[in-house]
Amino acid sequence: MCVLIRDAQGRILAISRPNNREDFGLIGGGVERTDGDLDADREGTLRRAAVRELWEEAGIRLQPHQLKPVYQAQARRRYATVFVPTVPPDPPRLGLNEEGWVAWVEPEKICSGSFGTYNRKLLHTLQATRR
């Protein structure tokens, strides 16, 4: 699961791999036990996981109901859901943290990293649905 946040210039809030500051991806990660039970409440659990990841990686506080799922696809043998905020989020905590380097990047930057193929499909699909 991950969260897509854009700024007014169209840049994307992203985080680098901890060991490679040039390999950026969307804010997100896996579900933890404290997020809930995927079998009992899939969307609610994913929303809570996204809220937790936003806080841990970028210092952004949102409520689960303030995220809307916009994309779902299979990525690396599991399904991934992408959320966007339904309200303007607070400014992120930019710079280096224990998870990686948090920065606003051009869309092309997330399309060239470890999840590049997935991110290209995501951005292409979202662009097509806006037409």
Secondary-structure topology with pairs:
Blueprint: E1 2-3, E2 12-17, E3 20-28, H1 42-58, E4 67-75, E5 78-85, E6 95-97, E7 100-105, H2 107-110, H3 116-130
Parallel strand pairs: 1-5
Antiparallel strand pairs: 1-3, 2-3, 2-7, 4-5, 6-7
Biggest β-sheet: count, sense, barrel?
A: 7 strands, mixed
β-strand percent reads 25-35%
Number of helices: 3
| Secondary-structure class | alpha+beta
Rg over CA atoms: 14 Å
Would you mind describing this structure in some detail?
The chain has 131 residues and is α+β, with helices and mostly antiparallel strands. Helix content is 27%, strand content 33%. The chain is globular.
Descriptive keywords:
globular; 7-stranded mixed beta sheet; single chain; 131 residues; alpha+beta; 3 helices
Summarize, please.
The protein has 131 residues and is of the alpha+beta class. The chain has three helices and seven strands, in the order E-E-E-H-E-E-E-E-H-H.
